[in-house]
């Protein structure tokens, strides 16, 4: 199984606040990031370490391109949330990550309740909390 890493998981992995087995999956190329997650993650890096940290992330992870026409699926996902009054809490980046994961047939790796909310209402979205550790 390959995972599309959300910012909430990327930060915890980078800080080594997770099960070390996740780092083995990075080395095997099974953890993927997309540009919105990379941009969001790097926002928290100070200017002195920015270039080095960006290079480390790009070297460590497979970087996936957000699929063309992703906004059509983002709109569908958001409309799925509306009847449950859950559409206002999920960020645009989270919607793009979820849509990208669905299109690329990846499971979202996160530590963000919004992906659990999305998965409750969008059955094709697969998600896993990074805190649960990798599957056995």
What report would you give on this structure?
This protein has 136 residues and is of the alpha/beta class. It has one domain (3-132): Rossmann fold. Helices cover 50% and strands 12% of the residues. Strands 3-2-1-4-5 form a 5-stranded parallel β-sheet, with helices on both faces. α1 crosses α3 (35-42) and α5 packs across α6 (92-104). The longest helix has 13 residues, at 92-104. The N and C termini lie close together (12 Å). The model has no long low-confidence stretch (mean pLDDT 94).
List the helices and strands and how they pair.
Elements: E1 3-5, H1 7-14, H2 21-27, E2 31-34, H3 35-42, H4 50-60, E3 62-64, H5 70-81, H6 92-104, E4 107-110, H7 113-121, E5 127-129
Parallel strand pairs: 1-2, 1-4, 2-3, 4-5
Helix pairs in contact: 1-3, 5-6
- The whole-number mean of residue pLDDT values reads 94
What about the largest sheet?
A: 5 strands, parallel
- C-alpha geometry: globular
- Structural class category: alpha/beta
**For the record, what CATH class applies?**
Alpha Beta
Computed over alpha carbons, the radius of gyration is 15 Å
CATH level-four homologous superfamily name: 5'-nuclease
| Domain unit count | 1
H/E topology pattern:
EHHEHHEHHEHE
Q: List segments where confidence is low: pLDDT < 50 over at least 5 consecutive residues.
A: none
- CATH level 3 topology: Rossmann fold
Question: Can you name the CATH architecture?
Answer: 3-Layer(aba) Sandwich
- The separation of the N and C termini measures 12 Å
Strand composition percent? 5-15%
Helical content stands at: 40-55%
Lateral arrangement of strands in the main beta sheet: 3-2-1-4-5
Number of DSSP helical runs: 7
Structure summary, number of beta strands: 5
């Amino acid at each position: 199984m390959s995972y599309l890493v959300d910012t909430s998981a990327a930060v915890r992995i980078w800080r080594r606040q997770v099960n070390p087995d996740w780092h083995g999956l990075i080395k095997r190329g099974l953890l993927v990031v997309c540009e919105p997650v990379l941009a969001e993650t790097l926002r928290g890096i100070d200017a002195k370490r920015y270039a080095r940290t960006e290079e480390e992330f790009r070297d460590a992870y497979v970087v996936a391109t957000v699929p063309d026409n992703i906004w059509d699926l983002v709109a569908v996902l958001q409309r799925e949330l509306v009847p449950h009054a859950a559409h206002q809490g999920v960020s645009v980046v989270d919607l793009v990550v979820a849509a990208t994961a669905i299109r690329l047939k990846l499971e979202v790796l996160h530590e963000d309740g919004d992906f659990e909310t999305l998965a409750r209402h969008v059955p094709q979205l697969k998600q896993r909390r990074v805190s649960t550790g990798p599957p056995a």
